[in-house]
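Q: What residues go here?
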């Protein structure tokens, strides 16, 4: 028996997490090596340091490293809650089945609370990043300020 809301296999979850981790890695490498991602190239932006030179790997990691948390944490919660939704008893007496159901509900509730806390923290970081860009005279996001990078029009 599976929940209609959470109807994924473990293989699908692991694949999703791997793909979610590839996006930050792609951004870190392409901004370090080329100064832009495909999207930034299309809109005519380039990432440079404050002296308008190519950014270092360290700067790219600082600038984009937070994305790993944005994408990986939900995947971790999905994996942790996998057993909550799929670890059902196939037999036993009614008391065992009832206890199993209550245990799953409790685990699901805890997973939901933790996930909601994560969403609130994520929204706070998005807000903080937006406010820092609006407050910056160079329009740098918080992570641009930390990594000493700028997004500029490319030539």
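A:
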């Amino acid at each position: 028996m599976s929940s209609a809301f959470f109807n994924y296999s473990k293989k699908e979850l692991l694949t999703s997490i791997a793909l979610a981790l590839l996006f930050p890695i792609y951004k870190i490498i392409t901004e370090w090596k080329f100064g832009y991602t495909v999207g930034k190239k299309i809109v005519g932006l380039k990432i440079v340091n404050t002296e308008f030179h190519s950014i270092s790997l360290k700067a790219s990691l600082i600038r984009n490293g937070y994305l790993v948390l944005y994408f990986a944490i939900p995947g971790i919660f999905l994996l942790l809650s996998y057993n909550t939704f799929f670890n059902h008893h196939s037999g036993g007496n009614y008391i065992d089945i009832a206890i199993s159901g209550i245990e799953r509900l409790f685990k699901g509730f805890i997973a939901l609370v933790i996930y909601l806390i994560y969403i609130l923290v994520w929204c706070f970081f998005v807000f903080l990043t937006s406010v820092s860009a609006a407050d910056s005279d160079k329009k740098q996001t918080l992570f641009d300020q930390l990594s000493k990078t700028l997004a500029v029009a490319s030539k």
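A: Context that may help when evaluating the design: The first strand starts at residue 45 and ends at 49. The chain has one domain: 10-153.
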